[in-house]
Amino acid sequence: MSNVTPVSAFDAAAPNRRGRALEDLREGFLRWRLAWVLARSDITHRYRGSVLGPLWMTFSTAIMLLCLGLLYSKLFKLEIAVYLPWLAVSLIVWTVIAQVFSDAGNTLTSAEGIIRQMPVPYTVQALRTVFRNMLVAAHNLPLIAIVFTVFDYSVSWSVLWSLLGLLLLCVNAFWLSLWLGILCARFRDIPPIIGSLVQVAFFATPVIWKPELIQEWQPYLPLNPFFAIMEVVRGPLLGDPVPIFVWLMALFYTAITCIAALAFFVRFRGRVAFWV
To answer: What is the pLDDT of residue 233?
Structure first.
């Protein structure tokens, strides 16, 4: 008879945390369609009864982009035809990053009913957060095309590199959803702290201001994780070459996030049902 304990069985003396966590990941990715349906349902429910629905996100982003573009192009003494395309990409990519951090903390607490009543892998909820944010981003992407068309901004084949940057962003979003989801389920004071940190990061990251404005400090920008992840998406879209050091730092931050989140998930996954 085999001495191997099935992953689905629980033994308090030998909980097999790693095996159960890996099984959760495997089953969760196999059920990605469920995560997709839940993400679409979240968007539909959020705008139920609205005439324009998710297009409100596009209009609000467009208004902010126009106001900030006109104001800061004057403050920074930049041509609007140069600054607005850069701001459009920066603002939309940053909005995705900021929303990921905001939603990641609520990944598990917002699914309390499902977690307590159904044996659904927690990985499904993390994928749900990723898909939901990608759907929101998709509603804002046409703004980039419109701005590029209005100002006759040329796009090269280097734009394809942004797909790799977007993949890194999605990987970070997934692991942050598991990591912060568990952490925020245990400590409910953390979501406001995350919101405050993201606000500070907005001003410390070149979203509105261009990197060259800080002159001799520009080489140190890749030490900012927000900048590294954003730049590997923004740079190729704008046709700007992304330095290899920025790519390496983006990969480094992604690896750190994956390792830390996986270790946290393995250690505390079994307690989530008691914390939500």
So the answer is: 93
